[in-house]
């Protein structure tokens, strides 16, 4: 086939990919790859996946033209819009307009940065209009655009939330985060209008484009639609019409019949009118009998023995048909044949020359009695003993039916039988010759008092009441009669597995498993009724807080006095003390009915264990709707919340708060439900807690009440000592959630109690005696097995890992009489006892008749049970210590020095072998007789075998050297071998590193070998205690105005055109400041300048000579604006008023700073509104007299800035227009770290008008 034929075939594939039919206009493939394309009166522009910018030559003023090649334009943008001008936004949401666009210079001259930040914008082709949305989906339109001022003057916020907006002759259209579609009323044919509300349009689209009496859009499946019937009479149109094809983004030009778009592969297409249908316009994928055809490929699984090159489609199909394993083939470029042993559901469409053919397999789903067929396979779990080849479907079914464990089978190619012990929800359909048959399961038998479902919740079995060969009724009775049984699994209609726990989703691998849940009924009741209530203020004595919990649901404040009423204040609140902890599911708030219902707008309900309502968890979202008079509002918590205090508070508003009744609903009893599953977890895995450490389902992290660490200390750690549980600010979640933990020795005999060697108050060591020990120990089987150097039992590194710590878990190992798997009795011997016993001082001291250690009556009081607490505890002798070594239980597997290995030797002999070998750093002594010397140690021990005892060689004191910091371990790799040294001193090694330009650290091994390094690391590897690491001390780098500084580098994205070597920091900063695309720079070794187009969240800190400078980009937004002349941008310090821009931001209730990244905020400076005689209005005197501050990293609402007393600080503001008032946070409770900071005006003079600035520490991580 010639070149023309190849080109035609390429077009064939692309058009087929778009789904074009013969009766529809053409989609024309355009050369190039773009992720976003825009067409308008300034031509066709686009950006690719690298954010490179392109203009299509020959398309200016001619949207119908296809152009002739792409021109790369300097700069980086992630999205672009061509209209009456060309605008775009970059990766940081900075906004730019292209300057100098003319007919003779269609690509323009430069980019101008426009104030503000947007994630997407759109420019009209027929009017001076620009609309856009920011990262919070807030909507803005640009005002003040004229011929002389094409960039406009201000951003005016428009009501609503959208993720994508478009402006054109058909008006303003947009889609929100749910892909709902909206039209801006009043904008059709009047694009300069801001409109007056949004009309919801039926349908779902992810992206939309407004054109001339037509609107285009694409949905999540990349289907293309146009809106028909748009006219002056019906500006929102009449309906959607699907256009054949697939595009991920589309944009209409000046003509509604013409559009450009890009598909999922970034291919570019143009839609044009067809004046006539020509045969050459229409192409179809070639078909072949016996196969279905589609575009693309299913990569891999090729049958190379029948691969062919330079053959016809017919030849390729015949090769596949004649091979027993061939199920499909890919035909490339109309000449290469790739037969396949598998197919796939979705082809890869990277190459339009790939066409895929699936073999049509008819009548594969043959039926067989007792089974349900489906295509595919559930791989694995085969029963090979009844596998069959060359057998019939009926034979295969009989084999499965006759086998007790067979629940399904896969029948391959009508001849091979694979019986299975498990099925699956979704079969794998890679091979169409696979047919899967599931054994039909009879309806689930029911039993009174339980609900039935298929599957199992593995584990948590109560073995003492397990039963085999019993009836369903017997199994249910066993569970009903056992206090801890909440469910049971009944297997194969004969085996009973009672359970202590249930689960949300059962495992359905085995259809013979049926799970029965005991019903859990909670009767809701109002637990706030007649409880103690309070509120932030009292309007009159007739309207106290108790009115909201008196049971009277009347809604008349005056004269019936049925409601509460606060004074006029900012964010008033009401709260109730429930007197006990309840699990709250929802709260009903009844609004005042005789008037003023709108005052309850923007209220929040919080629930939690703290009297300070700010510390508690929100129940539901802020209620932002305007309530009607007397309305009953039911607030549902996303997940049930445990707490004693419930509050209602207005958020972000100054008003009165009036409540007629607040009903708080919970289960029938306190603590009736506890949240312990993962989806509702209110504690953290790192054991941090409190307001600074939120958990998945709690803004204030709690501690697991069922764990060993139920209490939160004042410093925010979960634990169980008096410092965690008994201090003034401690919180005991065990008490809150009703988890009572008795001492582990409760139930011991008097004789056994006299031998206990630990104390109930957790004290240990010299000076603290126990009943059975002159020096008190710690219970090795409790949550606190280690004695700290200060004499406290605990479980942290300070208790178990310090030089003076004692870990009692490592004592008495060789002769232990119980097993780690919890089994006991004659069939389960232990290392030091046969039969195996149960640990008498653990939580599981009794052996049941079934051979399980436990602590219930079924373990301790049944016939045949043994309670090992009835005799003194059975410990073994302590493992011996060895001078020069530290002892631990367990092993660090591997790294053995086999030349020193010894069997049947003493502990002292093993230690001598290790001491005599230069590379030996530790040894493991097994079963008191086998010696395993090691070249490495480890931090975390493997404790699978209790006979393993590990001895680490004690490390000598670390030596220091001037100019370096020292730590144990190594940062492997990055060695500078040219200055490596052996048998040298520490001082020599340091000098070698200091004198080498690239050396930033060195490792000194065994006090003699020197390994200089080009990189360091944050955490050293401590496998060899002979390794000592020295980091070169780095002085604090200088900072430069306009940039924040941190250690490290964000590799890549360098702007080489302004790179510099041998220049100053000031010169480097100037280069970055003067370049439109520069957002940061890395300054290496105080001399090399690497300007960057991108920054990063976390720098790479391998080289301490790298210092990274981020351009300080502070943006300001506000909750509202007094008018287009009073934008948040006017709030900059020293902003001057003009005839068109007010001298300050002006509105309420808040002004927010986005610092670009989390920074340490040290002070705040404010001014009032500046005045200019040019201002067209009257003279004014406006300033904020007082304000509060909130902040956070996700938004500005996480934390209120509070003083040392915990109360929100109210800062003094201004007393005139232009004087500056500064507050250093060090004068209060100290600086704070955040990205978003909100200023909330409290009182003001004239109007809420403010200019402000935050001072931040330029050093981000030093």
Automatic annotation (TrEMBL):
<keyword id="KW-0106">Calcium</keyword>
<dbReference type="InterPro" id="IPR006624">
    <property type="entry name" value="Beta-propeller_rpt_TECPR"/>
</dbReference>
<keyword id="KW-0430">Lectin</keyword>
<dbReference type="Pfam" id="PF22633">
    <property type="entry name" value="F5_F8_type_C_2"/>
</dbReference>
<dbReference type="InterPro" id="IPR001002">
    <property type="entry name" value="Chitin-bd_1"/>
</dbReference>
<dbReference type="GO" id="GO:0046872">
    <property type="term" value="F:metal ion binding"/>
</dbReference>
<dbReference type="Pfam" id="PF14295">
    <property type="entry name" value="PAN_4"/>
</dbReference>
<dbReference type="InterPro" id="IPR006585">
    <property type="entry name" value="FTP1"/>
</dbReference>
<dbReference type="Pfam" id="PF00024">
    <property type="entry name" value="PAN_1"/>
</dbReference>
<dbReference type="InterPro" id="IPR051513">
    <property type="entry name" value="Tectonin_beta-prop"/>
</dbReference>
<dbReference type="InterPro" id="IPR003609">
    <property type="entry name" value="Pan_app"/>
</dbReference>
<protein>
    <submittedName>
        <fullName>TECPR1 protein</fullName>
    </submittedName>
</protein>
<dbReference type="GO" id="GO:0030246">
    <property type="term" value="F:carbohydrate binding"/>
</dbReference>
<dbReference type="InterPro" id="IPR008979">
    <property type="entry name" value="Galactose-bd-like_sf"/>
</dbReference>
<dbReference type="InterPro" id="IPR000421">
    <property type="entry name" value="FA58C"/>
</dbReference>
<feature type="domain" description="F5/8 type C">
    <location>
        <begin position="1096"/>
        <end position="1257"/>
    </location>
</feature>
<dbReference type="Pfam" id="PF00754">
    <property type="entry name" value="F5_F8_type_C"/>
</dbReference>
<dbReference type="Pfam" id="PF19193">
    <property type="entry name" value="Tectonin"/>
</dbReference>
<keyword id="KW-1015">Disulfide bond</keyword>
<dbReference type="GO" id="GO:0008061">
    <property type="term" value="F:chitin binding"/>
</dbReference>
<keyword id="KW-0479">Metal-binding</keyword>
<comment type="similarity">
    <text>Belongs to the tectonin family.</text>
</comment>
<keyword id="KW-0732">Signal</keyword>
<feature type="signal peptide">
    <location>
        <begin position="1"/>
        <end position="23"/>
    </location>
</feature>
């Amino acid at each position: 086939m010639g070149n023309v034929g190849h080109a035609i075939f390429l077009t064939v594939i692309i058009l087929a990919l778009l789904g074009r039919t013969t009766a529809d206009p053409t989609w024309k493939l355009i050369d190039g790859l773009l992720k976003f394309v825009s067409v308008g009166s300034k031509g066709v522009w686009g950006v690719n996946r690298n954010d490179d910018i392109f203009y299509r030559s020959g398309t200016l003023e001619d949207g119908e033209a296809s152009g002739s090649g792409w021109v790369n334009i300097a700069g980086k943008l992630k999205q672009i819009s061509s209209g009456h001008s060309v605008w775009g936004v970059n990766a940081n949401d900075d906004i730019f307009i292209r300057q100098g666009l003319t007919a003779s210079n269609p690509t323009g001259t430069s980019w101008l940065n426009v104030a503000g930040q947007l994630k997407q914008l759109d420019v009209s082709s027929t009017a001076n209009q620009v609309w856009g949305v920011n990262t919070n989906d807030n909507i803005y339109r640009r005002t003040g655009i004229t011929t002389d001022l094409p960039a406009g003057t201000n951003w005016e916020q428009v009501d609503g939330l959208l993720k994508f907006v478009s402006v054109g002759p058909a008006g303003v259209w947009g889609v929100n985060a749910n892909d709902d579609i909206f039209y801006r009323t009043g904008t059709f044919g009047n694009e300069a209008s801001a409109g007056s509300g949004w009309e919801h349009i039926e349908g779902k689209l992810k992206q939309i484009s407004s054109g001339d009496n037509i609107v285009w859009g694409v949905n999540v499946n990349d289907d293309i639609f146009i809106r028909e019937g748009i006219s002056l009479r019906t500006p929102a149109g009449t309906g959607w019409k699907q256009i054949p094809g697939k595009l991920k983004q589309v944009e209409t030009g000046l003509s509604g019949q013409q559009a450009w778009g890009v598909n999922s592969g970034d291919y570019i297409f143009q839609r044009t009118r067809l004046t006539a249908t020509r045969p050459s316009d229409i192409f179809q994928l070639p078909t072949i009998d016996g196969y279905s055809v589609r575009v693309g490929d299913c990569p891999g699984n090729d049958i190379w023995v029948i691969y062919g090159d330079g053959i016809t489609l017919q030849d390729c199909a015949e090769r596949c048909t004649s091979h027993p394993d061939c199920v499909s083939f890919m035909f490339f470029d109309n000449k290469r044949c790739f037969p396949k042993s598998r197919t796939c559901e979705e082809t890869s469409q990277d190459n339009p020359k790939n066409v895929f053919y699936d073999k049509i397999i008819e009548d594969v789903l043959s039926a067989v009695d007792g089974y349900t067929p489906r295509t595919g396979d559930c791989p694995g779990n085969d029963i090979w003993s009844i596998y069959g080849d060359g057998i019939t479907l009926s034979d295969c079914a009989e084999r499965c039916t006759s086998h007790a464990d067979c629940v399904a089978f896969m029948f391959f190619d009508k001849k091979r039988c694979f019986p299975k012990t498990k099925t699956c929800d979704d079969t794998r359909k890679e091979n169409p010759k696979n047919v899967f048959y599931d054994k039909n399961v009879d309806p689930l038998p029911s039993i009174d008092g339980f609900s039935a479902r298929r599957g199992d919740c593995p584990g948590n079995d109560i073995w003492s009441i397990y039963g085999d060969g019993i009836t369903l009724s017997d199994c249910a009775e066993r569970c009903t009669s056992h206090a801890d049984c909440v469910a049971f699994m009944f297997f194969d209609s004969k085996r009973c597995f009672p359970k202590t726990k249930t689960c949300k989703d059962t495992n359905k691998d085995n259809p013979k498993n049926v799970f029965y849940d005991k019903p859990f009924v909670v009767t809701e009741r109002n637990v706030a009724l007649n409880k103690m209530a309070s509120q932030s203020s009292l309007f009159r004595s007739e309207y106290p807080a108790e009115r909201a919990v008196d049971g009277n649901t009347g809604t008349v404040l005056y004269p019936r006095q049925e409601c509460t009423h606060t004074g006029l204040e900012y964010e008033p609140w009401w709260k109730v003390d429930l007197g006990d902890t309840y699990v709250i599911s929802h709260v009903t708030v009844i609004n005042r009915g005789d008037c003023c219902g709108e005052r309850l707008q923007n209220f929040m309900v919080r629930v939690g264990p703290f009297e300070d309502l700010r510390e508690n968890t929100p129940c539901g979202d802020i209620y932002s709707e305007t309530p009607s008079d007397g309305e009953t509002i039911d607030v549902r918590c996303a997940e049930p919340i445990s707490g004693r205090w419930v509050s209602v508070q207005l958020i972000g508003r100054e008003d009165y708060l009036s409540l007629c009744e607040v009903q708080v609903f919970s289960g029938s009893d306190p603590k009736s439900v506890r949240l312990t599953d993962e989806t509702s977890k209110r504690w953290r895995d790192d054991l941090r807690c409190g307001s600074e450490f939120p958990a998945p389902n709690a803004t204030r992290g709690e501690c697991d009440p069922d764990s060993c660490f139920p209490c939160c200390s004042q410093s925010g750690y979960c634990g169980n000592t008096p410092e965690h549980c008994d201090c003034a600010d401690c919180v005991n979640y065990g008490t809150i959630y009703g988890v009572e933990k008795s001492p582990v020795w409760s139930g011991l005999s008097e004789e056994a109690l006299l031998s206990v060697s630990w104390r109930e108050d957790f004290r240990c060591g010299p000076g603290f005696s126990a009943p059975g020990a002159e020096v008190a120990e710690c219970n090795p089987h409790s949550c606190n097995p280690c004695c700290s150097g200060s004499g406290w039992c605990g479980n942290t590194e300070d208790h178990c890992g310090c030089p003076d710590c004692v870990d009692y878990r490592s004592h008495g190992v060789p002769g232990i009489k119980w097993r780690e798997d919890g089994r006991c009795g004659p069939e389960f011997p232990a290392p030091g006892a046969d039969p195996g016993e149960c640990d008498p001082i653990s939580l599981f001291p009794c052996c049941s008749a079934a051979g399980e250690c436990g602590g219930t009556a079924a373990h301790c009081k049944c016939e045949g049970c043994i309670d090992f607490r009835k005799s003194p505890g059975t410990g073994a002798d302590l493992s011996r210590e060895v001078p020069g070594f530290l002892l631990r239980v367990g092993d660090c597997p591997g790294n053995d020095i086999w030349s020193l290995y010894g069997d049947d030797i003493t502990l002292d002999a093993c230690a001598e072998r290790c001491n005599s070998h230069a590379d030996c750093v530790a040894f493991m002594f097994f079963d008191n007789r086998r010696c395993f010397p090691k070249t490495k140690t480890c931090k975390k021990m493997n404790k699978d075998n209790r006979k393993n005892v590990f001895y680490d060689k004690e490390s000598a004191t670390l030596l220091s050297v001037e100019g370096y910091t020292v730590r144990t371990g190594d940062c492997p790799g990055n060695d500078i071998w040219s200055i490596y040294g052996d048998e040298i001193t520490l001082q020599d090694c340091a000098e070698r590193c200091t004198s080498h330009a690239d050396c930033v650290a060195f490792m000194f091994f065994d006090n003699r070998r020197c390994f200089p390094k080009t990189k360091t690391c944050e955490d050293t590897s401590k496998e060899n205690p002979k390794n000592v690491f020295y980091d070169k001390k780095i002085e604090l780098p200088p900072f430069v105005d306009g940039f924040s500084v941190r250690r490290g580098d964000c590799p890549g994205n360098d702007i080489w055109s302004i790179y510099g070597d041998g220049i100053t920091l000031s010169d480097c900063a100037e280069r970055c400041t003067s370049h439109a695309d520069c957002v940061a720079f890395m300054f290496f070794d105080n001399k090399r300048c690497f300007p960057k187009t991108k920054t990063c969240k976390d720098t790479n800190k391998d080289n301490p000579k790298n210092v990274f400078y981020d351009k300080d980009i502070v943006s300001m937004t506000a909750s509202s604006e007094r008018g287009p002349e009073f934008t948040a941008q006017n709030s900059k310090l020293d902003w001057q008023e003009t005839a068109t821009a007010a001298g300050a931001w002006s509105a309420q209730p808040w002004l927010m700073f986005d610092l670009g990244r989390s920074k340490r905020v040290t002070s705040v400076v404010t001014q009032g509104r500046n005045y200019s005689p040019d201002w067209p209005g009257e003279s004014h005197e406006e300033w904020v007299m007082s304000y509060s501050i909130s902040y956070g990293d996700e938004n500005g609402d996480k934390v209120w800035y509070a003083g040392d007393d915990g109360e929100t600080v109210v800062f003094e503001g201004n007393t005139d227009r232009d004087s500056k008032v500064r507050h250093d946070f060090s004068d209060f409770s100290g600086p704070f770290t955040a990205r978003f900071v909100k200023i909330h005006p409290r009182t003001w003079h004239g109007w809420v008008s403010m200019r402000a600035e935050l001072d931040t520490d330029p050093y981000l991580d030093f």
